[in-house]
Amino acid sequence: MFELMIKILLHMLSCFIVQTAWTQSGVSKPNKILPGHTNDVMALATPANGESIASGGWDKVISIYTNDSLNRLIKSIPDAHLAPLSALAFSRDGKLLASGSADNTIRIWDSVFNMARLLEGHTGRVTALLIDPTRRFLLSGAEDRQIILWDIK
């Protein structure tokens, strides 16, 4: 049931990232819609410093935006994976980005969003990622029902 609710929510984000603001009536209205995808958006992430926003989805593109009033597209990484993206995680300081995919792999991207590492070990779609505060370890979860601890230093 919970997974179905998450899938419905992610589908509602399809093709757009929306920033919202509360109106006086308590109804949320979009402040801005960020284009950048040609198919469903499946993952969103921002580092603790809040300087950027990353998105990924069925189009296999990772889009990186500034997290300010302009929300400029900084970088677009086409074909970031061989299959749709399903998970994203920034390190706390924003210097690393991890992406997971239905191709069962994880890719680590450096501070200028060049691929730094490819991690293979899951036998199912990667669904969850977490980079520890020291940037030494990455935790990943997947549809293979495994959680893997990776040393990424």
In words, what does this structure look like?
The protein is built from 1 helix and 13 strands, in the order H-E-E-E-E-E-E-E-E-E-E-E-E-E. It is mainly beta. Strands 3-4-5-6 form a 4-stranded antiparallel sheet. The longest helix has 11 residues, at 2-12. The radius of gyration is 15 Å and the shape is globular. Residues 4-18 have low confidence and may be disordered.
Features of this protein?
single chain; 153 residues; mainly beta; 4-stranded antiparallel beta sheet; 1 helix
Please write out the topology.
Elements (H helix, E strand, L loop, with lengths): L1 H11 L4 E6 L5 E7 L6 E5 L6 E6 L4 E5 L6 E5 L7 E6 L6 E5 L3 E5 L5 E6 L5 E6 L5 E6 L4 E5 L2
Antiparallel strand pairs: 1-2, 3-4, 4-5, 5-6, 7-8, 8-9, 9-10, 11-12, 12-13
